[in-house]
Design brief:
Layout: H1 15-21, E1 31-37, E2 44-47, E3 50-56, H2 58-71, E4 75-80, H3 98-109, E5 114-119, E6 133-134, E7 137-138, H4 140-157, E8 161-164, H5 171-181, E9 188-195, H6 202-208, H7 228-240, E10 244-248, H8 254-263, E11 268-272, H9 274-285, H10 291-305, E12 309-312, H11 315-323
Parallel strand pairs: 1-3, 1-4, 1-12, 4-5, 5-8, 8-9, 9-10, 10-11, 11-12
Antiparallel strand pairs: 2-3, 6-7
Helix pairs in contact: 2-3, 3-4, 4-5, 8-10
The chain binds ligand PBG and zinc ion.
């Protein structure tokens, strides 16, 4: 009988051995939880295509922030639906908008919880594009001036991290300059540096009422076929002063995450987006998958690909599962 001598299975023989040789792990400290704040009071309405996620008025957003902190999750990312929309999205820098009010209230209630502000205009513009229009073209440089206002208003409201998701060229430098001019030198920038034009944003656009009213976002978001271009975007955002670099979506782009991880020395974040979340939830609700296993395996895959930070709607349930 042939006796095999080389046995990788020796390292898998017991739970103790597997614990000892494990290479990667998930922690609640990896997570950022996104929330959607809406006008009004005492609002907590489930988002149909994102089961377990809610439209929250400011009072409920504060309750969720307390829960995140109690679970050890370090950060919340605040998205919002405004009271009004217009051509240039001026609700985005209105200190009375739900996002700014929520940031201030959360900072007061749970000062240790980090607040990430999504900086974009698509929730606030009547046409649903991420910037100021010139005909059907989203004007890059005029949009930068508006993004500067949004970033400063969020920093004033209490944001610790500004996360521009608009994909205009030069926005990181423009936002850095505006923040510094207002003495927000210690507010950092997490750039959605590599953001693809993706079908996986569908549920989010329903939730945030931010779908473009004509055309699509391919003029400014990246072509899913490209990876060299991703590294070019990363280089530019690093040069412009980004502190954290994000890749989005996560699951279909883990090769890009790995490339970015090996390309720079900055923390790398991934956004486990709404469509990725919705697919898992739908399958779980049908009893087709073991949700806990699938979620933890998926998030671990993002860590293994090189992510340091995972923005995920699964954060609360995953945090509880990790603690079990
Ligand atoms: C807005 C924005 C989007 C997401 C985050 N910020 C949608 C988009 O670009 O249309 C997507 C998040 C998700 O799908 O979970 N620029
Ligand atoms: Zn946008």
């Amino acid at each position: 009988m042939y006796v095999q001598k080389l046995r990788p299975r020796r390292m898998r023989i017991s739970a103790g051995m597997r614990d000892m040789v494990r290479e990667h792990s998930l922690s609640v400290k990896d997570f950022v939880y996104p929330i959607f704040v809406v006008p009004g009071e005492h609002v907590k309405e489930e988002i149909p295509s994102m089961p377990g996620c809610f439209h929250l008025s400011v009072d409920h957003a504060v309750e969720v922030a307390k829960e995140l902190h109690a679970l050890g999750i370090p950060a919340v990312e605040v998205f919002g639906l405004p009271e009004y929309k217009d051509e240039i999205g001026s609700g985005a820098w209105d200190m009375k908008s739900p996002v700014q009010r929520a940031m201030t209230a959360i900072k007061e209630a749970v000062p240790e919880l980090m607040i990430v502000g999504d900086v974009c205009l698509c929730q606030y513009t009547s046409h649903g594009h991420c910037g100021k229009l010139c005909g059907h073209y989203v004007d890059n440089d005029e949009t930068l001036q508006l993004l500067q206002k949004v970033a400063v208003s969020q920093a004033r409201a209490g944001a610790d991290i500004i996360a521009p998701s608009d994909m205009m060229d030069g926005r990181v430098a423009a936002i850095r300059e505006a923040l510094d001019a207002e003495k927000f030198q210690n507010v950092s920038i997490m750039s959605y540096a590599v953001k693809y034009a993706s079908g996986y944003y569908g549920p989010f656009r329903d939730a945030a009422d931010s779908a473009p009213q004509f055309g699509d976002r391919r003029q400014y978001q990246m072509d899913p076929a490209n990876v060299q271009e991703a590294l070019k975007e990363v280089d530019l955002d690093v040069a412009e002063g980004a502190d954290i670099i994000m890749v989005k979506p996560a699951l279909a782009y883990l090769d890009v995450v790995r490339r970015v991880r090996e390309h720079i020395h900055h923390p790398v974040a991934v956004y486990n987006v709404s469509g990725e979340y919705a697919m898992v939830k739908a399958a779980a609700q049908n009893g087709w998958i073991d949700e806990k296993r699938i979620v933890l395996e998926t998030l671990l895959g993002m860590k293994r690909a090189g992510a340091d930070i995972i923005i995920t709607y699964h954060a609360i349930e995953a945090a509880k599962w990790i603690k079990e």
